[in-house]
Specification:
Strand order of the largest sheet: 16-15-17-14-18-19-20
Number of domains: 4
Structural class: alpha/beta
CATH architecture of the largest domain: 3-Layer(aba) Sandwich
Helix content: 25-40%
Number of strands: 20
CATH topology of the largest domain: Rossmann fold
Oligomer: single chain
Shape: globular
Strand content: 15-25%
CATH class of the largest domain: Alpha Beta
Length: 493
């Protein structure tokens, strides 16, 4: 009979990425059925309860860290808790030197680093606003990695930042490259004269990596958070970022990435671009209806955005095309870790007149419910799939069950996957996928993937591609190319 054990670490906080990585390692232990490390906020408490990971007498507050393990027996549970304690100490020990600064408060950090101009906030969402406000009032720009920050708080922070001549990136900003330094989920790309402003983390990663593959580089990549271009927020951070880049001598071309923004926001951005001295690529994934000034080009896919930016910057050729891959079945299943990558695949299918369903449909696509007889693109990084579990970029096992289901479906001719590497991502997502395919088999389905990353990333893109190809996966040079490849196969299959 299974045993569930909880340990509460009062007043202990660890970054959410670290917690998800530790959870992943614990669940890999033989005899462990499930494991999770979370701050005991009300929302996380509900997640743990739904997963059956709470003991009846466990008590904890939102500022406490809860370690929960369900194992085959008590001995395994106790050993797992011991391992959790060891892993929680690891972040503080890694790369430590006698000179490493480990301030306990924002104030002490500012004293130790008086020239710093950016604070990265990664605390529970309920507390992120207060810490971000302290940083702003200390004269620091802010990147808020934390999610679950109230919309009203976001608006208040961004208005205050604007008044102070600063910027707030986020909340829920997972990707940035500032002056060549990757932050959070980001890739190692060369320095160059192309800047990116984006309301999409994986979208920024895809575009920056494709630009790198084409031989160019990035000056800055500024994430603004997924809500910045809504009518409520009014593109406050986007306009601030564009203004900075307008004055940045290292930036010659600017790429703006977003899902279709609110009409009032479109007007503001269009007017800013009209007055700008620089060239622009505007990528609105899911919309091709926008009138832009002569110094800007509109694209609907991330691949085209990267190719256009490179062409505008240095006159290089567009990114390479792909060859056809025959597909036996009638339908394609896209199972994505990146929401914008899932959106881009939908755009490609719709552009060819192919109906498509999704849990996050772009304009023209339909909401997926239970229908199976159609092309389906699922964003598995959506909160509903990661409740109590790591994001699939951190733990690719989150996708195992739907991948196996798709491979077993005789109507599915191709399975589309994104493999996102870089800082914060799983150390070997290709190896995990190859092992899954080896164990399960494919029943005639072709697996088509793209790898978002560079050879300078810790996982090394070329190695990831090689592992996938040896496992029989068809690897396309971009996410859009992978979708085109599946469609080409359908047309001749």
């Amino acid at each position: 009979m299974s045993v569930t054990v909880n340990i509460v670490r009062a007043g202990v906080f660890l970054d959410s990425v670290v917690l998800m990585q530790i959870s992943r390692e614990l669940t890999a232990i033989q005899g462990v059925e499930d494991a999770a490390l979370m701050m005991a906020t009300p929302a996380n408490w509900d997640i743990l309860s739904d997963a059956g990971l709470l003991e009846e007498d466990t008590r904890a507050g939102p500022g406490d860290l809860l370690v929960a393990v369900r194992a085959q027996d008590r001995a395994i549970a106790d050993l797992t808790l011991q391992r959790a304690a060891e892993l929680m100490e690891r972040p503080a020990q890694q790369n430590s030197t006698p000179r490493e600064l480990r301030p306990l408060t924002l104030r002490s950090a500012c004293r130790q680093l008086p020239d710093a101009n950016l604070a990265l906030i990664s605390v529970p969402g309920d507390f992120a606003g207060a810490e971000a406000r302290k940083a702003l009032r200390a004269g620091l720009n802010v990147m808020i990695f934390s999610d679950n920050v109230a919309l009203a708080e976001e608006i208040s922070l961004k208005r205050e930042a604007r008044d102070l001549g600063l910027v707030v990136m986020g909340p829920d900003c997972g990707t940035a490259i500032i002056d060549g330094v990757p932050l959070a989920f980001a890739n190692v790309v060369p320095r160059g004269d192309i800047a990116i402003v984006g309301a999409s983390g994986t979208g920024m990663q895809e575009v920056s990596c494709l630009i790198a593959h084409a031989g160019e580089g990035i000056s800055h990549a500024i994430g603004v958070g997924g809500r910045d271009l809504t009518e409520a927020v009014g593109a406050i951070s986007t306009l601030t970022a564009l203004d900075w880049l307008e004055r940045d001598v290292a930036t010659q071309h600017i790429v703006l990435i977003s899902k279709p923004p609110a009409p009032s926001v479109v007007d503001q951005i269009t007017e800013f671009i009209r007055r700008s001295s620089k060239s622009y690529t505007v990528c609105l994934v899911g919309s091709d209806n926008l009138a832009l000034p002569d110094n800007a080009k509109l694209t609907t896919t991330l691949k085209d955005a990267a190719a256009t930016a490179v062409t505008n910057s240095k006159g290089l050729e567009a990114l390479p095309a792909v060859q056809r891959a025959p597909v036996a079945g009638s339908y394609v299943r896209g199972l994505y870790s990146g929401g914008t990558l899932a959106a881009e695949a939908q755009v490609v299918f719709l552009s060819h007149g192919q109906p498509v369903l999704s849990n996050a449909p772009v304009p023209g696509a339909r909401l997926f419910t239970s229908e199976r007889t159609n092309h389906i693109m699922i964003d598995l990084g959506d909160d509903r799939f990661t409740r109590g579990r790591p994001h699939p970029m951190i733990d690719p096992a989150v996708r195992d069950e739907p991948i196996c289901a798709a491979l077993s479906d005789p109507d599915v001719g191709a399975v589309l996957l994104d493999v996102v590497i870089g800082f914060g991502a799983h150390p070997d997502p290709a190896g995990h996928l190859a092992g899954l395919l080896d164990r399960h088999g494919r029943s005639g389905s072709v697996v088509i993937a793209s790898v978002t990353g560079t050879d300078e990333d810790p996982q090394v893109r070329a190695k990831q591609v090689s592992v996938l190809e040896r496992a029989g996966v068809v690897v396309a040079p971009s996410n859009a190319d992978a979708a085109e490849l599946a469609l080409a196969g359908l047309k001749i299959g």
